Every structure is written in C-alpha cells, then in structure tokens.
Amino acid sequence: MTPRQILGQIGLWFSVLVIVSPAILFFLWMASLSLKFEVDNAAYPPVFIPEHIAWKNYTDVLASNRFLTYFFNSLIVTGSATALALIVGVPAGYGIARMAAHKSAIVILIARITPGLSYLIPLFILFQWLGLLGTLVPQVIIHLVVTVPIVIWIMIGYFETTPMELEEAALIDGATRWQVFSHVALPIAKPGIAVAFILAVIFSWNNFVFGIVLAGRETRTLPVAVYNMISFDQLSWGPLAAAALIVTFPVLLLTVVAQRQIVAGLTAGAVKGG
Amino acid sequence: MSALTQATPAAAKSDAAPEKELRPPSYWPFVVPALVVVLAIIIFPWLFTIWMSLNEWKVGSPTTFVGPSNYLRLTSDPRFLESVGHTMVYTVLSVVLPLVFGTLAAVVFHQKFPGRGFLRGIFIMPMMATPVAIALVWTMMFHPQLGVLNYLLSLVGLPPQLWVFHPATVIPSLVLVETWQWTPLVMLIVLGGLAAIPTEPYESAQIDGANLWQVFRFITLPLIMPFLFIAGMIRMIDAVKSFDIIFAITQGGPGSASETINIYLYSVAFTYYDLGYGSAIAVVFFLLIVALAALMLYMRQRMLWTEIARGA
Fold this sequence. Notes:
By secondary structure, chain A is an all-alpha fold. Helices cover about 75% and strands about 0% of the residues of chain A.
C-alpha cells in the first residue's frame, strides 16, 4: 500500500465511524438507561457504565402480567394483519403483474399518501356501530391499511421480474391458472414473500396511532402500552427504558438479521404505510 | 370494446397464438379478494370521510348536514392556520437535512470495506425501530437537568438548552429526531442510484485530473438527481404526516408550539370528538400533501427543462 492509499483507508474508516455512531451511541445509551438504578440515572454528570447493573428493571417489566397481555395483543394484531395481508396480497400482486394493470397501483399510492388518522375517523364510527370496540378485531382490520399495500406493492414488483416461460409451459400442459400460481409462480416467489412478510411485520408491530384511538385498557398493543407508561412513571427511567427496549428489540434483531431483504424491499419503494 | 372482443367467434380465437389465451380476464380471481379489502379499508373510509366532513358530526349528538361550513371554519381557525405553519417549517427541515446527510452517507457506503452489510444493518436501525420506544429515550435525552444531550453540549463548551421544553427550540429538536430516524432511508435510495452509475465518466475524470469535489459535483450529483428527487418526495410525504415522534415527545407542546396539522387533527377528532370538523381537516390535509407532491414534480420538470436549454 502506498501512503496515499493508507490515508484513504483511514479516511474511509473515519467516515464510516462518524456515520454509524449516531445510531450505535443512541442504542447503547438506551441499553445503559435500561440497566441502571434510579440513583445512576439521576446522576450528573451521567453515568455510562454503572457499577451495579439493574437487571431488576427487566424482570419487573416482564413479571407484570399486564405486559404479557400487551405482548400477546401485539402478537395477535401483527400476526393476523400480516397473515391476512399475505393471503389476499400475494395473489393480487400476481394478478396485477400478469395483467400488467399498472394503473391499479395508484390505489396503493393513495394509501401511501393518506395520513393514518384519516382512516381512523370513519372506521372508528364503523367499529362503534358494529359494537367491535373493546376487542382486538378493529385493530387487526385497521392494521390491514398498513400491511396490505406493502404486500401488494412488493409482490407486483417481484412477480414482474419472475420469468413467464415456466408458467406458459405449465398452462400448455393443461394446468389450471390456480395450479400454475400455486405450483409454479408461488415457489419461485418465496424470496419476495419473505421481504413482504418482514416489512409488513415490522411496520405493523411499530404502529402506534391506530392503537391510541382504538385500544382499550385490555386491548393495548406494546407501543401504546409503553406510551401509557410515560405518564405514570415520570421519573423512573430505568424500567421505562427497559420496556422500550423490550418492545423494539424484536424489530432491531430482525433488522440486523434480515438487513438484505429489508434493504431490497425498502428500495423497491414500498416504505411505511399509515 | 371488451364486449366486442368477447363476441369474437371461437374459430377466430383458435387461430391466435396460444400466448393470446394467457391474457385477461382470467387473472381477475386473483385480485378480487384484495379488491374487496382495499374497497373496505381504503376506498370506503375516503368516501365516508368526505361525507362526514359535510356534516356536523360529534360523538354522542345527532348529526346534521351543514354543507361546506366545516371547510369555511378552517379558514378562520387560528389554531389550524398556525399548525399549517408549523408543519411547513417541520417538513422543509425534515426533507433537507436527511437529504444532505443521507447523500453523504451513501457516498461512504458505496465504497467497499469489510463488514459493510452488517454496518449498513446497524445504520438503518433508527428507521426500523419502534418510533414510540425511540421517542421515549429521546425525551429522556432532551431532559434539561438530567439529559445526556446537555451534558454533551457542556463537554464542548456550549450552554445548556431547553430542547423540546421551549417554544423556540421545540421544532428544531424534533427535526433532530426525525433526521436521525430517516437519514438511513435517503441513504438507501441514493445508494441504489450510485450502484446504477457506470464507471466510464469516473475513469475519464481521473484522466482529466478532477479532484474529489469536482467528481462529486459534476458527475455523481447530476447522475443521482433522479434518486434524490424520489427520496425527497418520499421524505416530504412522511415528514408532513409525522405523528408518532411529535405526539410521544411533546403532544404538540409546549403550548401549541409544535402542533402540526396531523397533531391538531388528532386533537379535534379524538380529544374533542368533533368528527365532522376533523374529517374536513383530513380532506384538506390530504389535498395539501397532493399539492406539495405536484409542486415538487413541477419544479423537477422545470429543472429538467432548464438543464436541457442550457445544454442546447
């Protein structure tokens, strides 16, 4: 290596460090807050690595039976909304791609532009009429606003890139369209479905605005539960930060593990609904 | 037209290549379930919102048709007009800053270095993390006495700030969070653009002895312009609608200093339960976003034409 190249390497690594540090420092500080007793969290100058680690913050949060309820609520809402979105969205993406009905994508675009709150007002009234408030059903339905457009959008893009030849061959051999879809197109599309699944799960799991309006005491999802903790525990930062980290941990893990799929999906233009 | 095609005799059909038979309408069954869902959760709410906006509609009292009066009320509602101003300031800052930082980050991530994939995963964590959880930690960091941000300021000799607790600094502070959160998205889009650039222009620039800045300014920047535009568009749409971060950190406060249209819409609809007026705000809000997007498209078009004119 010439001195010039070495200088270039140092410059590159320095730039990488500068760019990545806001994210790393933030999440380290979040972890630090969640592992400290109140004495350390209220200390000035701030303590970064405490002498005594407060695992208690985590056990307290996990031990409260409400937290488990909210965890299962989140699991049910995100799980159902994602499953339903895949069931209706994957075939739809296939149909739209094969019919080359690109104009229909405008509906997805409108869904993308519309603020989440505008869905809430009419659907809130509807759920009230139907007597569904107080159950998880309204949240599952309204999370479809997030998950369905993501799945359809990604699947249109994916099916457009998969080759038609195999499908045509199967059709000539006398397969029905449904058989072609389920035996030929679907297996090829697995990576695309994985991308759609991951993004739908993340954006549904993270959703907050639908929950604050539609969730009752027993039907809160985790983001809403964490938000409600703020007002109660104004000054106990340790447990709060621990709860926040527990809520977002599955998503962070998924981001690092599946970063390739996430990047592929996000750059395909399907970013965030609601 | 479609009736005509369907009426074609079977004999004529068999003459056509087998490819012809792969055409619609036989793909419709795949789309119908999604169509029903989209109608129910996207189209119906929109039509119903428009209808509600024409009514006096409060939870617990009978509704009456009032025509455009909800819309007229908007024009003289100081809180709404103020929220439009806040939204504009918030949006412009939250588009420009992530665009600048995201482009710089993309240039760095475009280089090859070991661990790039993993570090890119770390880098995009802010935008994937649960916004409410993030907001909670930022609130603690903004704390004027115990927050880590004022400590960091004191290390470099700057006076402590009130951050989100003062009307003058609340919007910039929230923009800081928004920028931290969404710079990765701009980075990803621009990175996609950089990957599509051919290597020839760089090689000839090297031969001509261009420096790094000249290469970026005259080769890279023009070539990634379309991607920057897309990133800016997406960022604009998201920044205008930003809700979770603002609501969880300030709820529009102190006073109404950080009340954007979306936050005000929430208050009207779900704190005062004035659903008719809230619907009118929702409609105007949507039109505003569409108008902003159209304006950006128009500006992009004009820029293209000036470029072409200059080139000629």
